[in-house]
Amino acid sequence: MSSAPAAVLTREAPATAPQDAPRWRSRGRALLPPVLAYLVGHLLYTVAGALVAEPFLPITGRVRADSGLYVKIAEQGYELFLCDSDPILAPQFAPGAWCGTAGWFPLYPGLIRLLTSIGLGSYEAALLVTEASLLLSFVLLWRLLRNTARPVAAAVLALATLLPAGVYLHAVFPMALAGALLLGCVTFTAARRWVLAGVAGALVAAAYPMGVAVAAIGFGAVATLLGRGELRPWAALRAGLAVVGLPLAGLGAVFGLHHLTLGHWNAYLLIQEHYGNGVHNPLHSLAKLAIEPSVIVIAEPRQDLLWVLHTFTDAELWWALALALLAVAAAVIASGRGRLRPFDAGLALYAVAMFVGPLIAGPGVSQYRSHTLLLPALLVLRHLPARLLWPYAAVAGVIALPMGMLFSTWLLF
């Protein structure tokens, strides 16, 4: 009698293992598209670098002028001084202008500093933050597309991979970090976890100046729910305070940090002022960018690439404008079909804010770099047909390759 149960147990014991294996295989398959997108992006910019005989994958291939400023903040903290006090800088700026590192936001340098405390070099730490953030961005984007038809979802993922200024998502800049946090904010907003969405938004605002536009995502979502009667007024007010108030608090924390460390709460504004950035008419900025040649930021640019610079920075600008308009159109279409999710409305508002915001700051602001933060707005395009999205992605790729070439030759800043 004792052998019968043993025989039963022997037959049943393996039954649990085959059930677990498909689950892990399923999870692995779910990660395959975002990992593939991550690798294809690296391949794209490696090819772009090779076309101009510049290596892209090493750390030196991902570092540009502002990269050093983020690392300097991580290593030495913030500094602010009158440009007149530096004999090298004084001739470059008007009397009374301020110089220093306060024109760059603290979250990315803070993470670099944290990682250097465990033995990594500053640039290695910076690139690690970038790479981890970029991979996480693709994973979060694909997860948010999980209920979307596969051809459309694949097209949206391709758009993210081929984003025209996407080279900055691979570089020693805070763009990938801000992108991952933005998609985290969208994820929490979709789940109606307002405080967590607000915290993610606050971190975005502390990562990049234009990141405060993240407040539009939560605002649009809460306003949509309130309009539908799915949130009571007091609940909507509490949610709004979280998703709008916390990003504003994140921006305020940057000013507070500057006040504590530099004695000037407006240190960021002082630095931006000497670049001519401030409050501008966005239409005037757009016209200037469209008409005038692109700024050349190095003393000896490659002459054979100047036409590439002027042509494809303009193309990137119009592609980004098209994205903002398509996001609004997709949200309107989804609303008409009864398929609009609350975060879609927020992302449509965000897309407009993220395109217009840098124009308000001025034509001297790197528009294409800020446009990388349009990444989450691609989600709204899932309401459009794949036959429209794939040609749009092809155009993105045609722009992204030369933009990578320009980055590798220091013609982008």
Short description:
By secondary structure, the chain is an all-alpha fold. The chain is 66% helix and 1% strand.
Protein architecture, described:
It comes from Catellatospora coxensis. Keywords: Membrane, Transmembrane, Transmembrane helix. This is Mannosyltransferase PIG-V. With 413 residues, the protein is mainly α. Strands 1-2 form a two-stranded antiparallel ribbon. The protein has one domain. Helix 2 packs across helix 6 and helix 5 packs parallel to helix 7. The chain is globular.
- Total helices: the number is 16
- Major beta sheet, specifics? 2 strands, antiparallel
Strand proportion, as a percent range, falls in: under 5%
| Average pLDDT taken over every residue | 93
Query: What coarse outline follows from CA principal-axis ratios?
Result: globular
Taking the alpha carbons of the first and last residues, their distance comes to 80 Å
The beta-strand count equals 2
Poorly predicted runs: 1-13
Query: How would you spell out the order of helices and strands?
Result: HHHEEHHHHHHHHHHHHH
How many individual domains?
1
User: Helix coverage percent of residues?
Assistant: 55-70%
Strand order in space, largest sheet: 1-2
Alpha-beta content class:
mainly alpha
Radius of gyration: 23 Å
Task: List the main descriptive attributes of the protein structure presented here.
mainly alpha, 413 residues, two-stranded antiparallel ribbon
Layout: helices, strands, pairs:
Blueprint: H1 3-12, H2 16-51, H3 65-76, E1 80-82, E2 98-100, H4 107-116, H5 122-144, H6 150-161, H7 175-190, H8 194-207, H9 215-228, H10 233-262, H11 267-273, H12 282-291, H13 306-336, H14 342-361, H15 367-371, H16 386-408
Antiparallel strand pairs: 1-2
Helix pairs in contact: 2-5, 2-6, 2-16, 3-4, 4-5, 5-7, 6-16, 7-8, 8-10, 9-10, 9-14, 12-14, 13-14, 13-16
